[in-house]
């Protein structure tokens, strides 16, 4: 092969690594790279977005869903700046993303030329690999290295490319390292496994908390066997939702502010905490200090013992560790704690059931999300935005074995829902994709609804329209502040969807929502937006922890009971008396 442009070599490397999609917006300093993508459009799809933030959020979401590298590109300067938010989402949720940034030509570099931004400095904090290309001779090598680094470090690789360099030709081809690359998994120390087994045998009230590390290592089946044969209830962090199906009888739902009361209480009663692939940061929701022994499994040594004092710390792949533990057979058969937790969970579910039937006008968000849950196809892919939509999905979506669920977990950026849905539908053309958004969050990226129209992506976009930043309404109250600046002006999002060339429904009741959703499931060639007018029900925490309780004092006990309708469910410690 001779006389290939640097840009073509760059695209070849991406193809070698199995990149199928690049998200971005062409222009100025990235045009040469885009031109090479045009030449190889049969190999790599270029999805043109309307705002670069959406490109980066989509690339991050693609990586979350598929476990593969997400790729986005932009011009230097303003376009690159727009990417930042999505790249931070990838960084903080530890997924591999490559960002290709244009830059002014080499001869103008450092002059303070039009749109010249110091990208090396700007992306320093977000990137695990951050280089500027200075010669066509090693362009392909550096791209290859960037991809390896993104995979190895589970983060963002950034390449700044002065636009004249990929335009130059090279006489020699480059062979990428894609085929030879494999991440090694540490061997597991059998002594540590024995110690872990011993702690499990001794435990009276063990609990498993599983996180995204378990999801990534596809440990669902092994964990399911583990909790079943050892009679252990389990809790999932929100980004790991669905790793073991939510409707598994040992599941206590999610933990934390958006979690369930049974999960909180089980944590507070446990005498053994088994942390599997999680770096869960909210200590008030973990067992109290010195209350429980702890086994932690994590692929990253730096996470071991970070959040809770640990007795057995195993560095390793969760699936591998749990499979080896399972090979030891049943370690404990006492099911008293599990029974008590299940009873507690069944009380909770009954209460949740009552809320999901609420037939109010405007509709209650609980009932709408419950209807989505009931009707979702077995292969549904959910993309959930930030706000009360996150809470409702945590509570009312029961993610099944073959369904997928993604959120912006650690950055928690509003506006991640629609880009995630676009990425999911591009990656999985034959699956149903649904995104759940608040009106505030959707408005941050709504211009890209037209992208879904352009690429004929039949995503279902549900906007929970409460004309408010409801999550912040709740947050202000729990901090003891008076509500201020949380109202949002209304907008006819259905009309907007129609104006984009999609389908839009305005719905005000459960019945109207059901009709609209049923119709939406049948559409195959364009996105459907359901603008659902809902009550601004603020999300009810499973348990109000101390800091929040202090804030609420300002509003009084009566307010708490009436407005939040805190359930009068018996606490786990009372239920346990029946079993112990
Ligand atoms: C980019 C960004 N800005 C601000 C926030 C803080 N924030 C979290 S939730 C929220 C309100 C969301 O409002 P909306 O989308 O209407 O959903 P609702 O809570 O009303 O259901 C805000 C402002 C954020 N997480 N991300
Ligand atoms: Mg809102």
From TrEMBL:
PROSITE patterns referenced in this protein's UniProt entry, alphabetically: TPP_ENZYMES
A single MF term (Gene Ontology): thiamine pyrophosphate binding
Keywords: Pyruvate, Thiamine pyrophosphate
Coiled-coil region: none
DNA repair found in the keyword field: no
Domain Thiamine pyrophosphate enzyme N-terminal TPP-binding stretches: 5-120
Thiamine pyrophosphate enzyme TPP-binding domain: residues covered: 385-531
Gene3D superfamilies: 3.40.50.970, TPP-binding domain
Transmembrane portions of the chain: none
Segments forming domain Thiamine pyrophosphate enzyme central: 193-325
Family classification: Belongs to the TPP enzyme family.
PANTHER family associated with the record: PYRUVATE DEHYDROGENASE [UBIQUINONE]
Stored NCBIfam families: PRK08611.1
Name by which UniProt lists this protein: Pyruvate oxidase
Species this protein is from: Liquorilactobacillus vini DSM 20605
């Amino acid at each position: 092969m001779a006389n290939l442009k640097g840009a073509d070599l760059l695209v070849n490397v991406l193809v070698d690594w199995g990149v199928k999609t690049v998200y971005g917006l062409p222009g100025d300093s990235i045009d040469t790279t885009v031109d090479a993508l045009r030449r190889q459009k049969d190999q790599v799809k270029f999805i043109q977005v309307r705002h670069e933030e959406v490109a980066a959020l989509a690339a991050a979401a693609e990586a979350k869903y598929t476990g593969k590298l997400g790729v986005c590109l932009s011009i230097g300067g303003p376009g690159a700046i727009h990417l930042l938010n999505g790249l931070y989402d990838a960084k903080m949720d530890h997924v591999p993303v490559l960002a290709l940034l244009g830059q002014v030509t080499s001869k103008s570099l450092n002059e303070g030329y039009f749109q010249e931004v110091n990208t090396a400095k700007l992306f320093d904090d977000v990137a695990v690999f951050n280089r500027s290309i200075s010669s066509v001779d090693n362009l392909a090598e550096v791209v290859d290295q960037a991809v390896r680094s993104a995979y190895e470090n589970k983060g963002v690789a950034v390449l700044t490319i002065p636009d004249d360099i990929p335009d130059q030709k090279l006489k020699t081809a480059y062979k990428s390292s894609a085929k030879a690359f494999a991440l090694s998994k540490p061997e597991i120390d059998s002594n540590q496994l024995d110690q872990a087994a011993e702690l499990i045998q001794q435990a009276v009230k063990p609990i498993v908390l599983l996180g995204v590390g378990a999801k990534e290592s596809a440990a669902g089946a092994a964990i399911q066997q583990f909790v079943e044969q050892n009679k252990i209830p389990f809790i999932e962090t929100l980004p790991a939702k669905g790793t073991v199906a939510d409707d598994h009888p040992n599941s206590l739902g999610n933990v934390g502010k958006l979690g369930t009361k049974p999960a909180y209480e089980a944590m507070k009663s446990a005498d053994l905490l088994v942390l599997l692939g999680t770096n869960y940061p909210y200590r008030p929701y973990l067992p109290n200090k010195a209350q429980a022994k702890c086994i932690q499994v994590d692929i990253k040594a730096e996470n071991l013992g970070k959040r809770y004092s640990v007795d057995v710390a195993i560095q390793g792949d969760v699936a591998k560790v749990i499979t080896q533990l399972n090979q030891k057979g049943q370690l404990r058969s006492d099911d008293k704690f599990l029974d008590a937790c299940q009873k507690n969970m069944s009380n909770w579910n009954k209460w949740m059931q009552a809320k999901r039937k609420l037939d109010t006008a405007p509709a209650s968000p609980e009932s709408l999300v419950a209807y989505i849950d009931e009707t979702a196809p077995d292969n549904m892919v959910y993309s959930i935005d930030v706000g009360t939509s996150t809470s409702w999905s945590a509570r009312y979506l029961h993610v099944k074995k073959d369904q997928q669920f993604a959120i912006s977990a650690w950055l928690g950026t509003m506006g991640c829902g629609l880009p995630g849905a676009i990425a999911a539908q591009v990656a999985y053309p034959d699956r149903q994709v649904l995104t759940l958004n608040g009106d505030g969050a959707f408005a941050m990226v709504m211009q890209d609804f037209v992208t879904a129209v352009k690429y004929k992506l039949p995503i279902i976009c549900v906007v929970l329209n409460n004309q408010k930043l409801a999550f912040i309404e709740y947050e202000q109250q729990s901090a003891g502040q008076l509500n201020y600046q949380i109202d949002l002006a209304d907008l006819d999002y259905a009309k907007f969807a129609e104006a984009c060339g999609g389908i839009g429904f305005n719905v005000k009741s459960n019945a109207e929502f059901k009709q609209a959703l049923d119709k939406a499931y049948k559409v195959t060639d364009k996105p459907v937006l359901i603008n659902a007018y809902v009550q601004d029900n603020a999300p009810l925490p499973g348990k109000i922890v101390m800091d929040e309780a202090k804030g609420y004092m300002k509003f009084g006990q009566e307010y708490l009971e009436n407005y939040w309708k805190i359930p009068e469910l018996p606490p786990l410690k009372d239920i346990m008396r029946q079993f112990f």
